[in-house]
Amino acid sequence: MDTQSFGPGSPRSFLGYPRGDFDLESGITRKARKQKNFLSDPLKMLKSTGNRLRYCYKLHPLLVFFLSLSFGVTILILLSMYESRYRMMNAQWKLDTDPESYPFAKLQNLVMVAGHSVYTSSSCGKVDQEDSWFLESYQKHPGQATTFLTHIKEGIEIAAKDEGALLLFSGGETRKDAGPRSEAQSYWAVAESKGWFGKQGVRWRALTEEHARDSFENLLFSVCRFRELTGVYPHNITVVSYDFKEQRFAHLHRSAISFPEERFFYSGTPASSTSQEAANKGEALVRTQFQEDPYGCIGSLLRKKLRRDPFHRSIPYPNGCPELEGLFRYCGVAPYPGSLPWAP
Asked: Which of 233, 238, 217, 220 is nearest to 156 (CA)?
């Protein structure tokens, strides 16, 4: 008797039921459903996603709106961070590839003298006289002009001791009645007229920063100006101003730009004896204002800066220091959260 195998190796396999879903009651075979493959048809996938979003929007319109808004804001933030990083990398690449394109590429340290007034005399023969300078009411004290000269000499002497230092006089065209003359140019012109540069051999590396309107901008703008001239950021910073402003510069302003404390130095000279008490009181008020507004971008500090820009000069920064673009735009009480070239 012949036997017939119906196992898997049999040449003729037995099909008990037709392929598909067989309905025992009706005796009808239903075709098996094909699984949808959205990956092979992106249009169907997009339509399906759109239908689901419309359905969710009908059920929860506010939720969908806020989710969409959050997604859009996230994308904008990511694009902004990418653009900022790209600019920084591009600027750094240019710096690394062509350092000789900067006129003072060999200098590494910054000595900044903060300006306090504009020289208005037609000749530089009376630089130690108060009527040769444009003074605000709170500055009209005997011996005030001499303190300006002391700052100029101090900055030159510090730079003379460091062959790798760039000396910058900082201060903009802050007084309308003084005309379009900057504090920085006033200090430079006085030093030139007295021959102080030649005696110390620093004339070729003594320049100006002519846009700062307050002490914070004296520091920040000078750092940017240093980058414009040398192609790098200063390794060390020395600030020259009044001794009663040391806490403001060395702590508040330095912390605002997150510059390392061990590379920041301050050289303070005394105010005139007749103005010392008033200067200390005024400084206490200004320090409080900068503690509440470290970047001088709101309230009374902002209004003061606007008053000190009578000729509406366009500030060129941060064009010369693209790595600091975020810092220049930042306004807040907390320290700037972005990365900085001198940060560890």
From this structure: 238
Q: For residues 105 and 125, what is the distance between their CA atoms, to the nearest angstrom?
A: 35
Q: Does residue 150 lie within any of the structural domains?
A: yes
Whether the model clears a pTM of 0.85, i.e. scores above it, the answer is no
Query: Domain range holding 263?
Result: 106-329
Residues contacting residue 54 through CB under 8 Å, at least 6 positions apart: none
Residues 119 and 110: beta-carbon distance below 8 Å: no
Q: Is residue 40 part of a domain?
A: no
Report helix, strand or coil for 242.
strand
Each residue's pLDDT tens digit, 266-280: 999 999 988 999 999
User: Do 161 and 302 belong to one domain?
Assistant: yes
Answer yes or no: is 165 within a domain.
yes
Cα–Cα distance, 235 to 223 (Å, whole number): 10
Distance CA 76, CA 60 (A): 25
